Recover the amino acids of this structure.
């Protein structure tokens, strides 16, 4: 089954404790992206990647890191989480940017205390 | 800059009512336009898209027409069902946006029997 998977689905952590949210897709997509969803703000793009070893900042990259060592994986890293990073996070992928449909993962709900 | 503006919700309609959700955009160049739907507890799914002016995207009874003259991409459905209850997001992408995706804030729709 073609899908985007994220882990964990739910996470409660404390300020300053490094964490990684994994994202994996099995559709051989070049493009992958991370978003955060907050009430009243919709989805905002954090980082995206056009292909292996190519990553770029989105609208809200501060406090986040990503890497793209393999085509299928695109982990999101929070080196020192803070309470303002409490949010719902989505990973997405597509064959290429622009005209193509993005496939979204099920989401990761993160709470930083 | 690039942005998407959606009508604010929540929207509550009776079954079989007519639905319109307004979406206007600001973008350089010629963006592709999308409507995504998010059902409770799930990630976003592509509902429909249009890649050039005057194109009409359609799916599951929903339609939207890419109007360049009014920079709009309003979502319509002639007769909504309870199963259409969800959050709807308008989005754009363009090579001129640096391969970024821009989403509106989302409009929550509840359809009552």
């Amino acid at each position: 089954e073609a899908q985007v998977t994220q882990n964990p689905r739910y996470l409660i952590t404390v300020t300053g404790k490094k964490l990684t949210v994994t994202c994996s897709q099995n559709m051989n997509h070049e493009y992958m992206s991370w978003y955060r969803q907050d009430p009243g703000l919709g989805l905002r793009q954090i980082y995206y990647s056009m292909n292996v070893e190519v990553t770029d900042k989105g609208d809200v990259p501060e406090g986040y890191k990503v890497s793209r060592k393999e085509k299928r994986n695109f982990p999101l890293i929070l080196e020192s989480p803070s309470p303002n990073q409490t949010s719902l996070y989505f990973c997405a992928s597509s064959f290429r940017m622009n005209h193509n449909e993005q496939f979204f993962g099920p989401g990761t709900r993160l709470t930083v205390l | 800059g690039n942005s998407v503006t959606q009508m604010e919700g929540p929207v509550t309609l009776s079954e079989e009512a007519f639905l319109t959700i307004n979406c206007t955009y600001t973008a350089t160049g010629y963006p592709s336009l999308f409507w995504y739907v998010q059902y409770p507890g799930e990630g976003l799914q592509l509902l429909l898209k249009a890649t050039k002016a005057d194109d009409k995207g359609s799916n599951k009874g929903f339609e939207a027409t890419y109007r360049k003259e009014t920079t709009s991409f309003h979502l319509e459905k002639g007769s909504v069902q309870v199963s259409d209850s969800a959050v709807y997001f308008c989005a754009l992408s363009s090579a001129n946006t640096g391969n970024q995706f821009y989403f509106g804030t989302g409009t929550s729709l509840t359809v009552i029997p």
Notes: Chain B touches chain A at residues 32, 34, 42-46, 49, 51, 89, 91, 93-95, 98-106 (CB under 8 Å). Chain B has no helices and twelve strands.
